[in-house]
Structures are given as C-alpha cells and as structure tokens.
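Hey, I was hoping to borrow your eyes for a little while. I've dropped the whole record in just underneath, so have a look:

——
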Amino acid sequence: MASFCLALMLTTEPYLVIVWDEGYTLGREERIRQWFAAMGRPASYASGWRPPYEELVPPNRLIAPRPEEMDSRAKLLRPPAIDWFWPFAREEPDGHPPVYALVGLAGDILTPWREPLPKARLGPMLVFSLTCGAIFAFLRRRFGSWAAAAAAGAWMAQPHLFALAHYATYDGLLTSFWTLACLSFVKAIEVEPGRPGERPRPGWILAFAALIALAMGTKFTGWLLPVPFLAWSAVARSRGGALTLLAGCVLAIPLLVLLVPPWWHDPILGVDRFLRSNLTRAQTTPLKTLFLGRIYDTPGESLPWYNTIVWTVLATPAGFLILAVAGVAWTLARERRDAVGTLFVIHWAFLLALRALPHTPGHDGVRQFLPAFGILAVLVGLGAGWVVGRLGWVGGLLIVVAVVEGGVTVGVMIPVPLSYFNPVFGGLPGAVRMGMEPTYYWDALQPEVLDWLNEHSPPGRKVRFARYPTSWLYLRRTGGLRPGILPSDPGDFAWYVVQNRPGDLSPLDRHLIAHAAPAKVYGRFGVPLIWVFPYDEVLKWQAIGEGRATAEGGAGSGGG
C-alpha cells in the first residue's frame, strides 16, 4: 500500500504548482545545504564566501556571517553562523522548527538531478506514503482488510490532506508524524492486538519517542501531541500507557534539541524564544479569514467554537464522513470500549477542540488542524470494519462507493484540491454562497495563468501580485514566469494578479473585483480563483484616491 501511495503522489505531484510557503522552504533548505558544504571544507568555503544577493528566505533582522566567523567547524557551530544558516525556531518570520526542511533534503540524496521544488517535495511524500502503509498494516491485523483498505483510501483521497501532503511544508509531515505516533504508542503498550499490557515494549517506546521529537521539531502544534495520550492513559487507567508516555517524552527531549541547531548553544533560551514567537502570533502575524460570511482577524479575534466541526463536514467527502461517524459511534457505544478506537477518538476530538480554542490561528481552511484528518482516516477504517461486520457484502459495497467517491473527487479537483467542498452542500459554489473562502494558498496560479502572463506581457513590462511570497522568485528563476515582478525591476507594470481570498482582499482588490473587467480569469465550477487585471485599472483607482484626498484637503484648509 505504501508503494501504491507513493506512485500516486509522484504521478500527481507535477500538477500541483508551488504554493505560498514553499518558496520559504526552498530558501531555508538552501541555507542548510550551504552550512553542510561549509562544514565539509570550512577554510576554503569561507575564503570564497559571498552572501547571496537574492534569496527565497523571508527577510529578518540577522546579517550574514563574515568569512572569519565561519572558517572552522567550531565557528560554524557558534551563534553567528548557526543563526544565519539555520533560520528556524525563533522570532517570526522564522518560527517553525527545522525538521520539515531536513526531511525535504532527502530529495538531495535520492534524486539530486531534479529541480529544487520536486526534489524538496519528495521527502514529505515518502513519509506520507510510509504512513499510509503503516495504517493499512496496523488496521488489517486488528480489524480486517476492509477496515485497512477504507482507512488507506481515506488517507490518500481526502482532497485537502492529499494536496497538503505533496507540498514542501510542515502540515502534511506533522499529520504523518502525529498518526505514526499513535500507531507506535499502541504497539508499545499492546501484549497482543487489542490487549494492552502493563509493561511497554522498549523498541516501540524508542520509536514513539522519536516520533514525538519529530512532531515537536516540525511545528508548534506538535508540542501538544502528548496531551491526548495523557488523557487516554487516565481514561483507560493504563499503567503501561502512562509509562510509555513518560519514557517517550523524556527520551524525546535530547533528540529534539539535536534536531534544532539554533538551540545548541543555549537550549533554554532557544525554547523560550520559540514559545514566545508561537504564542504571540496575534501581535506578529495577524491574518484575516472569511468564515460563514464574516471576516475574522485571527488570532486576535476568535472563530466560532464550532468552526472545526463545520470545516470537517464541508471538507470531507460524504462517504468517508459517514464511515468516520460510524467508527466514532461504534467505539463509544460498545459496552467494553476498544482501547485502540478510544485512543483515536480522543486524538481526533482533541485536535478539533485545539483549533476551536479562543485566539487560535484560524486562517487557511483546514490546514491549521490537518492532523485531525489523518486521525479521521483511521476512524474511517474503524467504521468500515463495523459496517462490514453488520451488513456483510452490502457493507463492503458501501466502502467501495466511499473510496471511489474519494478517488473521483481528487481526480476532479486536481490541480486545486484545496478548493474542494462537499457536494452535499453545493460544492465550491455552494461554499462561496455560504460565505467560505474558495482558495487561500495561491495553488490556483496555474500554468494556464503563467503562460498567459508570459504571452501577454509586452517586453519591458512587469507583473504585480496582490501578495508577494518568495515563491514568485522561484517561478522567475525557473522560467515559469518571465516578466519582472519586483518594484526594483526595470519597466512599468502591465498586470495586477489577485487571488480570490475574500478575507485577505485589500480595498484596491475589492474595488477591482467589483468595478473592473479582468483580462484573464482562472476558476473552477464557475467560481473565480485568480483574476488578472490590466494595471491601468490600478492607476485609475490610485488617481481616484489621490483626487479624493486632494478634495478633502482643500475642503479642510478653509476651516479655522
């Protein structure tokens, strides 16, 4: 099953364009490559060192080390070099730990000849595929082949999880590590399938500890991974579970520090900076999002407590949703509750509740609580096992229908699976009518749009985007986007590109959408996802604003 999943991921990867955060990932991975190269030959590397002129790393306050600060391995391990080459786990914009970038470097070893983007995506896709295989093997042994197949299908064919698992970012990886941690925890405490013991198995404790460290080293959310295990150990009154959790957390600490080089010289200060960065997002990185017709400025403002429930219903294919509900109901209704099922229900409920807490980042659809959809795939498997047990071949037919629905859904939504909404609620058009954001990650900036810009941009003219992640610099480097894009590039702007993300639209964007005629539109099912406006429309809007300001200034000058 892992091989099938990897083949699917590799086949579909070229159809998914570079998204918002991937440019930053590519820039950070390049910094790590430079550090490893310098560690291999520090003196010669330092003698020829020149800081890059243009990078994909987001700007921060740190300056590049001088040659004399990096001409030995000892110096490369000190703060001036480490802090620059490893832009992770500290103040924004470098708040995330580096495990996702380290996993992305697997492509340098396995496929060094490929372009930077597909090379960086290979590692996360490998982890995702191995997790799929682990889920299949885990459930087949405990609940049968139908349960295993349904769970693997839900893992591969949940459109949002499918898309985010391709990208060289953190959320797909965190989902894999979280799910694998659950599987390894069960393996550690079970004497045999379905029967927990009092003495955990040491080998699986080590695996569990490693997965805790990997999750914590990927994203702040991973630091909360032990909480649902603690809750389960208390509910199940499992001494083995408590010992496994305690040992796993203790063993994870040194591995986590090892995985985060910026903490090497002062782990306590490093952890403090990391936590402060991630717990003060309302001050550093507020983001507006549209939810059910209202714009929330998160995390300063809180989405309604039920937002994760709404998102789960809207973003999950109907067949998988029904099976997952059956899995939860079967687990909770049994007179003697299944320990494995209860563990996954607790994790799923915890992840939904976590994103529903006040002042929690609520942007980007389901991305911020994506691990819940990984756990949901396991619950789909539990529900499938129960359905087949009760309904026989009819239950098997229902499972086939659910998996086929998921597969067809992914096929139909490519290349923009992140714009999927459940057809029961009207699909993408219905979600827009409900007041949901149709897109957010710039995944709709498809080759069709880029080719149009390349063909219709006169020589010496530029393209301006409503937002500027460094992913656009990658497109320019690789020839995907040929016109200039930066204010510092020579020439005047010809086009203005806007993404249909209502919560994040500027007054200019809203004016153009309402009053200007786009020269190019990319959309799905009648819903625009990308607009390209002539830049003359931007100049007209600016002139109107200047005229209004002049008139107001003139009126005000006559008063005394």
Remarks:
- The longest strand covers residues 527-534.
- Residues 554-560 have pLDDT under 50 and may be disordered.
